[in-house]
Amino acid sequence: MGVALVQLNRVDEAYPFFVRAAQDEPNDPVARLNIGAYLQQHGRTADAIQQYELALDLGAEPGMRAATYANLGLAYSELGDYGKARSSFQQSLRLNPGQPGPWQGLALISQKQGNPEEAIPYFARSVELQPSAQGYLQLASLLAQTNHRAEAFAAYQQAVRMDPSLIESQPAGQKPTGQH
User: Of the N and C termini of the chain, which has fewer Cβ atoms inside 10 Å?
Assistant: First the structure.
């Protein structure tokens, strides 16, 4: 019932069902993952981490473990613990390399730690797995920042192809040029 309510975007109504599921089945990692996600969305990041770690301790199939590690990476990022965040994202990708979120998480950590060159392949992989105009725009910005002008221009063009309104939304001087 809780999952159905989440799909209807009624997350607050779903939470009691997740708690009840955890009470009825204390060894259910899915209930712990769902409780953790709810807590994280409501600003209770440390409590969410406890639920994610409990879900991992309880075991589960690899896809669920990958999702749990991805959420754990986001939670640690929110707390500024980039070492644990990076490790969690990497563990998630070992289990399921086809998820865009952990790749983007690694890119953002690299950027925050002042390592834009390291962020580029992570961001590129994220956009490859889940193309979006905003993703290509972020990749273009990162490529331009690191003097990869031709690649930045190509990424910007892809973003504009996906969402032509981006042309108007860019401040003057922020649009990548085709000059090398």
Answer: C
Cα separation, 16 vs 37, whole angstroms = 13
**CA distances to 27, 88, 157, 174 from 133, in Å:** 41, 27, 10, 16
Task: Kindly report the pTM of this predicted structure.
Answer: 0.83
Q: Which of 85, 141, 134 is nearest to 113 (CA)?
A: 85
Whether the CA torsion 133, 128, 75, 58 is positive or negative: it is: positive
**Contact 142/116 with Cβ under 8 angstroms?**
yes
The pair of structure tokens assigned to 13 is 């109504």
Average pLDDT of the residues in 74-90: 97
Structure tokens at 142: 């990162």
Q: Considering only 17-21, 42-46, 78-82, which range has the smallest mean pLDDT?
A: 17-21
The DSSP string of 5-74 is HHHTT-HHHHHHHHHHHHHH-TT-HHHHHHHHHHHHHTT-HHHHHHHHHHHHHT---HHHHHHHHHHHHH
